[in-house]
Amino acid sequence: MMNRRNGGHYPPGLLILASLVISVIIGICVLNFYYFHEVEQSLFQQTHRDLKQKNDKALNYIESMIQTKFEWLELFAFYCDLPDGSGNEQWWQQVQDYEKEDSRFGVADTSGTLYYGNRETQDISTRDYYKKALDGEKNISGLLKESFKGQDSIILTVPIIRDGVVKGTACLELSSDKLKQYLSDTDLSRYGANMIFQKDGEILISCTACENQNSLFEMLKTRKFGPGQTFTEMEAGISQGLSGYITYYENDYRRLLYYQPMGINDWYMATFVETEGYENTFHKIKSLSAKFIAGSTFLLFCGVILILLIVHTRKKEEKRLQKDYLTGVYTRETARKLVEHGLKAGGKNRFYACMFLDIDDFKKINDTFGHHKGDLVLVQAGQILSACTRQEDVIVRFGGDEFCIWLYGMRGRKQPEAIAQRIINAFHVSGKVHASIGITLIGENETEYDAILRRADQALYEAKGKGKNQYAITN
């Protein structure tokens, strides 16, 4: 049986409430961890989609630009005079007008001599792009190192055909800076850039992410890749003409790279982006969510504290109503509920005896010394009874100067006579106050509360008949 005087353990309802609160807090944390994970994955996937979209846009832009240049070259090749080296051809003025800092136009004859607008010539007879054009195929050259005013360049070439026979070629040379300008003319933020490289990793048109680098592969070999990704897998995929994404780290910044074949020679278009933009967005969401969690948890905590205060106040009030305000022992009504429940519970431990105690000459004490002194005697009586009994026993102020003690435990463990004598001795030691005690034993199957009290009251009557400071026992 629980310790009746200290209230025992926490009630099950309070433990359930505490468990529920802890479960809610854990649930909030788990749900928000899941939410953060989903938000991060969603932002990362959106970044992948945006990256591919920008790569496609840059590729389409380059393809459109090249297609436009080819159409212009083909139109020129259809109407121009055949190059004969005289310098009097009608196209010289057009060639001169197209001579710019980052691009130039030229016409080559069948011997491989290329004529530029500044009257400069160049032998291109051994060049692959020239040979392909002589075979009737328009094409784009590979990267020509320092071919144009010390810059790398590419040449777009179309054949000049008359009566089904190639009579020369029309060429448009674009510097690498011009191509880089085309690649940069996109809506990529300051966190991203485009570049063009070949299958073997050689960089044709560089960007800010790979300046001073000649090979994309050499650059990436030294970088740390994202989970489940390796440089070897990327290199193998590119050699097979595949497109794909990679994540790598540079100077503690995470970068995303999307690459796809351009359909021009063995060129690849690559788009880089630092993840700082989406990470800032994620951290902002995470910060706001963390504040929401903290606020929610705080409000929940305040709510729990309020509930606990209400429960504590109610329990305190209930406890106050259960105890006699003067002596601190149980009231008559509360004791009846406790004892009746204990009598019906059964088991080895149960109420085995009932004592009825009356303070001798209490009315005389009140009349002689006043009610204040009488109250002090009652308080002292409650203290004596609490000191002489166990926590499991139920002490009751029955009314006026009468007290009732219900002894709890195994029958015969402590003889009630010994306890009664201890109480009487304590009253004797305390001064001139004396008490009489009536005792009745409770049968193993006895459950009638009132019948037990009547026997204890009868025993008290017999004890008083013996004189002061006496006890009597009855079965």
From TrEMBL:
Pfam families named among the record's database cross-references: dCache_1 (PF02743), GGDEF (PF00990)
Keywords: Cell membrane, Membrane, Transmembrane, Transmembrane helix
Molecular-function GO term, any one: diguanylate cyclase activity
Annotated ranges, domain GGDEF: 350-475
Membrane topology listed for this record: Multi-pass membrane protein
Subcellular location: Cell membrane
UniProt-listed InterPro entries: dCache_1, Diguanylate_Cyclase, GGDEF_dom, Nucleotide_cyclase, Rev_trsase/Diguanyl_cyclase
SMART domains: GGDEF (SM00267)
Transmembrane segments: 12-36, 292-311
A single cellular component GO annotation: plasma membrane
Signal sequence extent: none
PANTHER family documented for this protein: DIGUANYLATE CYCLASE DGCM-RELATED (PTHR45138:SF9), REGULATORY COMPONENTS OF SENSORY TRANSDUCTION SYSTEM (PTHR45138)
Protein name, as recorded: Diguanylate cyclase (GGDEF)-like protein
Gene source species: Lacrimispora xylanisolvens
